[in-house]
Amino acid sequence: MADDIINRLQKTKTIGIIGLGDMGLLYARKFSAAGWRVIGCDREDKYESMLEKFAANEQFEVLRNGHYVSRRADYIIYSVEAENIRKIVETYGPSTKVGAIVGGQTSCKAPEIEAFEAVLPEDVDIILLHSLHGPKVDTTGQPLVIIEHRALEENTTFVNALVSCLMSKRVYLSAKEHDKITADTQAVTHAAFLSMGVAWKEIHQYPWETPKWTGGIENAKINISLRIYANKWHVYAGLAITNPSAKIQVLQYSKSTSELFTLMIQGKKQELKERIMKAKDFVFGHLSDSHQLLLDDDILERFSLSKTPPGGRQPNSHLSLLAIVDSWSKLGIVPYDHMICSTPLFRIFLGVTEYLFQSPDLLQECIDVGIDDTAFRHDDLEFTIAARNWAAIIEFGNFELYKKEFESAQEFFEPMLTEANAIGNEMIKTILQRVKERGL
Ligand SMILES: NC(=O)C1=CN([C@@H]2O[C@H](COP(=O)(O)OP(=O)(O)OC[C@H]3O[C@@H](n4cnc5c(N)ncnc54)[C@H](OP(=O)(O)O)[C@@H]3O)[C@@H](O)[C@H]2O)C=CC1
Ligand SMILES: O=C(O)C(=O)Cc1ccc(O)cc1
């Protein structure tokens, strides 16, 4: 975008952020550093502490509550818990400045739009955002979804001028398209790693202390699972529970997991192999011979949390990876089509899955282990139960139970979360660099 347009807009426009948590703060800092006038607030009862925290050292202004932000800002971004979006918009929406634009950063757009349409005056435009990464990830090159739901052309120009400082890859979608794709790239991805965490907790094992889980693929599973458990439960609960497509997809993931596991314990090797090969063909069949793998086991080998030198890759049934390919195939999803809304975690999940399915010997080894080796039976049983439990919690939309399950595993992993986050950051940086080099 031309600098003169940005400069002109910066002289007249004010950006408002309601919710100065992790993502709101990221936006407030980025926009104010780029020269925009930014005002923001968090919950009113935290006003004094927010002033203390931010007034002296930040370039944005902290106000008492969302009314003060709404009446002054030309673009107001709600960056609050998904569960509460309706209530919060009902509180501050009527105070929106005449002719302003309103948007939100919540991870599922159907409830956000519903709230805005129900509450906002008609003279207010609606342009939604969703940065597809966590608050600690560099915004450069990451997907940023923009949903121009109800907007005059001059207002879309303004929002595009504003977000250009994030240097993200802008993706224009409808709210419906966004929710359908992110159900896969986010909700199911999280369901898989949440289930791994619960399974480890249930068998009372820290995977970095057990030689069974060594090697690159295992490092990716461990680091990502712990990365999720180091975050806030409401982010994951909100994006899964409020997204209707997520319920269907997470349920299929659980169904695929239990059906594959059943074939394993029944010893039905031929049936298992046929089902896996059929799913493989659907998901990866279109890749050309020159397709370069997103990841390989070696590149992930060094990101280990283990204190003892890595003993090299160990055989595993990789039920969690077999099940994602089976569920993509059952739902008719080609995950490569979802790269436009990919998060770092999804790219890693797809990367390790692709590696497994594109390495014929490794895939055969999984099938053999699944059928002939009982070493992973208990783990796979717990994984199957955990996947079903998450699917039920999401299907019934139970935030309280989600929180309880999440925090119980979070507590189990607590001693390792800081270290896992640090190593996870390094792993993600390396992988993103590689993905970038390949222009993906
Ligand atoms: N974290 C992530 O990786 C990403 C999150 N998102 C989405 O962005 C949104 C924000 O997430 P995130 O920043 O991580 O979460 P946080 O919990 O860090 O931030 C939300 C903030 O909003 C505050 N808040 C609650 N009610 C009000 C209110 N009435 N007025 C003003 N502020 C209020 C919260 O206060 P309190 O905690 O006291 O309730 C909290 O500080 C969520 O919808 C999430 O799904 C999107 C992309 C990435
Ligand atoms: O990459 C992930 O899946 C994360 O865990 C971070 C995240 C969480 C919520 C979002 O809406 C977008 C990104």
Question: What compounds are bound to the protein?
Answer: NADPH dihydro-nicotinamide-adenine-dinucleotide phosphate, 3-(4-hydroxy-phenyl)pyruvic acid
The low-confidence runs, each spanning 5 or more residues with pLDDT under 50, are none
Q: Main beta sheet, described?
A: 8 strands, mixed
- Count of DSSP E strands? 8
- Secondary-structure-based class equals alpha/beta
Tell me the fraction of residues in β-strands, as a range: 5-15%
Strand order of the largest sheet: 3-2-1-4-5-6-7-8
Share in helix: 55-70%
Number of domains: 2
Helix count equals 19
The termini sit apart by: 23 Å
Family: Belongs to the prephenate/arogenate dehydrogenase family.
InterPro entries: 6-PGluconate_DH-like_C_sf, 6PGDH_NADP-bd, NAD(P)-bd_dom_sf, Preph/Arog_dehydrog, Prephen_DH, Prephenate_DH_fun
Organism: Scheffersomyces spartinae
Pathway: Amino-acid biosynthesis; L-tyrosine biosynthesis; (4-hydroxyphenyl)pyruvate from prephenate (NADP(+) route): step 1/1
Which structural traits does this protein have?
440 residues, alpha/beta, Rossmann fold, 2 domains, eight-stranded mixed beta sheet, 8 strands, binds NADPH dihydro-nicotinamide-adenine-dinucleotide phosphate, binds 3-(4-hydroxy-phenyl)pyruvic acid, tyrosine biosynthesis, EC 1.3.1.13, NAD+ binding, NADP binding, prephenate dehydrogenase (NAD+) activity
